[in-house]
């Protein structure tokens, strides 16, 4: 553990870690708990249709393994019309609901797994964090994603250290298209199906106004024949829920954040 991170965690203790199930927050939770124990740190995880069920299960499993003080909550974002309308700053409303809920369960300092790489992107969720007084120990320690993975390996977190970056499922829905649980379930089913079928490095199922677009890393996309695409498109269409009935399916190269439209138009 970087000494500066250790110093920061000690200074902020007692604290509450917002744990999503990804490498950043899982590693922060493990580091803080091993440093301060149950008396100095507790974890809160928000279960939601926007969170893949395997992420929630990962948090639960590690909580048992590491003896974390864990609370699994409903952050209530699906009752928030602002979040559901999927505006350009949707993440602000998501994180605002999350941190507001955590604050009702804990009076401790809330910390997140944001790292310095996150500062180079448009992240309205960081505005919500600021409004709720949330601290970011990795940022304060000057740690990027590679540093976090190195820390996870040093802590012996196994597969957690190698988890691919995977924003919430709502990030796959094009700006201004309403966020529906059924849509997110479809996205997760398609991504799980393709991950098992193709073993791609990256897969994202985007729901756009023009249709469903499956984005794959270049190597995986290039390996698909015309016949392969036809078979996969048919399989993907079988997952379509009623609210997406009639949507076409296409494949495209992966582009980070491509469902996010700054203009707010579709």
Automatic annotation (TrEMBL):
SUPFAM superfamilies: Adenine nucleotide alpha hydrolases-like (SSF52402). InterPro entries: LarE (IPR005232), Ni-pincer_cofactor_biosynth (IPR052188), Rossmann-like_a/b/a_fold (IPR014729). Transmembrane segments: none annotated. Coiled coil: none annotated. GO terms for molecular function: sulfurtransferase activity. The active site is at residue 168. This is Adenine nucleotide alpha hydrolase. It comes from Phyllobacterium trifolii.
């Amino acid at each position: 553990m970087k000494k500066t991170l250790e110093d920061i965690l000690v200074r902020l203790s007692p604290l509450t870690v917002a744990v999503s199930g990804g490498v950043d927050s899982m590693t922060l939770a493990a580091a803080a708990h091993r440093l301060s124990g149950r008396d100095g740190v507790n974890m809160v995880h928000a279960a939601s249709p926007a969170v893949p069920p395997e992420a929630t299960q990962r948090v639960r499993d590690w909580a048992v393994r590491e003896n974390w003080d864990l609370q699994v909550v409903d952050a209530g974002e699906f009752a928030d019309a602002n979040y559901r309308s999927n505006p350009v700053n949707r993440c602000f409303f998501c994180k605002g609901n999350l941190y507001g809920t955590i604050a009702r369960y804990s009076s401790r300092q809330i910390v997140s797994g944001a790292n310095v790489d996150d500062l180079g992107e448009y992240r309205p969720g960081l505005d919500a964090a600021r409004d709720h007084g949330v601290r970011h120990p990795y940022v304060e320690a000057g740690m990027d994603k590679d540093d976090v993975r190195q820390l996870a390996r040093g802590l012996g977190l196994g597969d957690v250290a190698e988890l691919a970056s995977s924003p919430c499922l709502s990030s796959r829905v094009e700006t201004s298209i309403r966020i529906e649980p059924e849509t997110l379930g479809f996205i997760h089913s398609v991504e799980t199906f393709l991950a098992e079928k193709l073993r791609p490095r990256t897969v994202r199922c985007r729901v756009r106004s023009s249709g469903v677009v499956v984005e794959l890393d270049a190597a995986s996309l290039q390996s698909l024949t015309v016949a392969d695409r036809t078979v996969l498109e048919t399989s993907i269409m079988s997952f379509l829920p009623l609210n997406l009935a009639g949507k076409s399916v296409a494949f495209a190269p992966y582009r980070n954040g491509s469902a996010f439209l700054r203009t707010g138009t579709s």
